[in-house]
Amino acid sequence: MAYYHFGVEKKRKLQEVAKRLRERYGPIPERKETDPLDLLIRTVLSQNTSDRNRDLAYSSLKKRFPSWEEILEAPEEAVAEAIRPSGLHFQRARRIKEVLSRIKSERGELSLSFLEELPVEEAEKWLLSLPGVGKKTAYVVLLFAFQRPVFPVDTHIRRIATRLGLIDPKDEPHEALAPLIPKGRELELHLHLIRLGREICRARNPLCSTCPLLDLCPYGLAR
Question: pTM to 2 decimals?
Answer without folding.
Answer: 0.89
